[in-house]
Design brief:
36% of the residues lie in helices and 24% in strands. It is an alpha/beta fold and 396 residues long. A 5-stranded parallel β-sheet has the order 3-2-1-4-5. Strands 6, 7, 8, 9 and 10 form a 5-stranded antiparallel β-sheet that branches.
């Protein structure tokens, strides 16, 4: 008796999708999470591929970050009077160990190129003309991107060409890299160019559901307009007061100053396009990511003015947007104004120093009914989940 062959999805990542400020991690936490959650589907076999040049680029970035942290390690050794055995001569060894550990943990396959398959004369001409994948500027950026592209093309050449048997997805936010790959695979029907991890999750969820891929793309656009659309005041976001619910349910997270004694101000809200999760009978489930910008700051003043400054030290809660641009773009709510000059009784106002910038991340689970006319009706809020924050250093 013949056994039905499970279709494959071959996923390849560009460097920009993997990038993380954490020196010890080869890939972002979100990449690890997606791999962990999607490596054991019963009806879809997924392979995760990293081009050799991407690993080399991440190694370079990780070594750079590790070198930045090395002086702190040396200070700690001096303070504790104990040597940890980490120096410039051993950094490469430790970084390589971290990379190999991540590759094994995530089950990455290393993608290489076949130099004989590359039309080098064409690539040189593209470089001179600044055609994709090369950037149209004086620095001629694009050689590493061309190697990533040909790693993907080599994988494509050695994989089944039928979409029902095998699909390939390149995850990159570099439009010129994707344009170059599309030019060289124009006749292929099983190639997907994706710009984000959200799009990858949506594709995977589509392939393991009973909804055809093309129809799922059409429904996702309908879900986007239903959830949040600037011209529609009766969109689901406003009718359900989702912004207000986030403020009420997660007031602690949205007011945490992270550094004791510092101040916090709220910023703009980002609403991203819905991600298809699953279909159960006529009910379709979605998630929508919402990110809330914030700053942690202090005022640079001398000690004589600290008491007067303390009266202004109240954490400013972000306000939900009541007006915004289309889904996936920055909403147009305005950050709270700075304290009026002269309020402190100082001749020159104190300097505001931003120590940390960040975004709080929320995931809105919701569902809709699929009508006989193929429209999305009866939207329902399932739950709102806090996913943590992304932090970066502020501008001094």
């Amino acid at each position: 008796m013949s056994t039905k062959k499970i279709p494959k999805l071959l996923v390849m990542f560009d460097t920009s999708v993997l990038f993380t400020q954490v020196a010890s991690d080869l890939v972002r936490h979100d990449v690890k999470r997606i791999i962990e959650e999607n490596s054991n589907h019963s009806d879809l076999a997924i392979e995760w591929h990293l081009p050799e040049v991407v690993i080399g680029e991440r190694r370079y970035q990780m070594l750079g970050k590790a070198n930045e942290l090395l002086p702190n390690m040396q200070k700690l050794e001096k303070l504790l009077g104990h040597k940890f055995g980490v120096g410039k001569d051993t950094l490469e060894l430790h970084v390589d160990k971290a990379i190999n550990s991540s590759i094994e943990e995530c089950g990455f396959k290393i993608a290489t190129i076949d130099k004989n398959e590359i039309d080098w004369n064409n690539l040189i001409s593209r470089s001179v003309r600044r055609d994709p994948p090369f950037e149209a500027n004086e620095k001629e950026k694009g050689f590493r991107d061309s190697i990533i592209a040909h790693s993907f093309l080599h994988l494509h050449k050695n994989s089944p060409a039928t979409a029902n048997v095998c699909r390939l997805a390149l995850i990159s936010n570099d439009p010129r890299l994707k344009q170059y790959v599309l030019e060289l695979t124009i006749d292929s029907k099983n190639i997907r160019m994706l710009s984000s991890l959200d799009e990858l999750e949506s594709l995977i969820n589509t392939l393991v559901s009973t909804i055809p891929e093309e129809f799922a793309v059409e429904l996702a656009e309908k879900a986007r307009k239903l959830f949040f659309e600037e011209e529609n005041n009766k969109n689901f976001y406003n009718k359900e007061n989702i912004g207000k619910k986030i403020l009420e349910e997660h007031a602690k997270e949205l007011s945490d100053t992270i550094i004791p004694g510092f101040l916090r101000s709220g910023g703009r809200w980002w609403i991203f396009s819905p991600i298809f999760i699953k279909k159960e009978r006529q009910r379709i489930y979605w998630t929508t990511i919402i990110e809330v910008e914030f700053e942690i700051y202090h005022f640079d003043v001398d000690d004589t003015h600290q008491n007067r400054l303390a009266s202004l030290a109240e954490s400013l809660m972000p306000t939900p947007p009541n007006k915004g641009l289309s889904v996936g773009l920055l909403t147009s709510n305005v950050p709270p104004p700075p304290p009026p000059q002269g309020l402190l009784g100082i001749a020159s106002p104190p300097k505001k120093v931003v120590d940390i910038k960040g975004k709080e991340k929320f995931e809105v689970y919701w569902s809709t009914n699929l009508s006989q006319a193929q429209n999305l009706t009866m939207p329902k809020l399932e739950k709102i989940q806090y996913l943590g924050n992304n932090l970066s250093e502020g501008e001094q």
